[in-house]
Every structure is written in C-alpha cells, then in structure tokens.
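Weekly sync, protein design subgroup
Attendees: M.S., D.O., the rotation student, P.L. (late)

Item 1: inverse folding check
M.S. brought a backbone from last month's batch and wanted to see whether the design step gives back something sensible before we order anything. D.O. pointed out we never logged the input encoding, so this time it goes straight into the notes. Structure tokens as presented (69 positions):
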C-alpha cells in the first residue's frame, strides 16, 4: 500500500510541475508547437532519477521499502 502512495505522490508532483512549467514556457515563448514545459520537467526528472540511482548505488544505503518494490 505504501508503494502505491509513493507512486501516486510522484505522479501528482510530476503532473503539477509539468503544468506549471508549461504555463511558464507559454508566457515566455508564446509558441505552442512543442510542449517545452513537459520536455523540461521530464529531462529534469530523468536527471533526478539518475542522481538518486547513483546515490543509492550501494544496497546498504537504500531504505528497506525501496528494496521490497
């Protein structure tokens, strides 16, 4: 159940950030051909996941809940 809540919270935060970044990019660029807000948030999210993966590279540093999922 905890995994479900963590995944839901991550989805919630990601979708809100995509929306806000999209609004910001639309105000700055006035172009809507490519959803740059979504692209920026997705690239930053990938970077964050990569950094966290590297940080948790050693199994003894990973919280138990992450190991069970």
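Designed sequence read out in the meeting:
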């Amino acid at each position: 159940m905890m995994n479900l809540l963590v995944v839901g919270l991550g989805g919630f935060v990601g979708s809100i950030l995509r929306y806000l970044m999209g609004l910001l990019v639309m105000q700055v660029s006035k172009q809507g051909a490519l959803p740059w807000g979504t692209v920026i948030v997705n690239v930053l999210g990938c970077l964050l996941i990569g950094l966290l993966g590297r940080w948790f590279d050693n199994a003894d540093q990973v919280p138990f809940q992450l190991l069970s999922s």
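Discussion: The mean pLDDT is 77. The two ends are 11 Å apart (CA to CA).
Action: P.L. to compare against the previous round before Friday.
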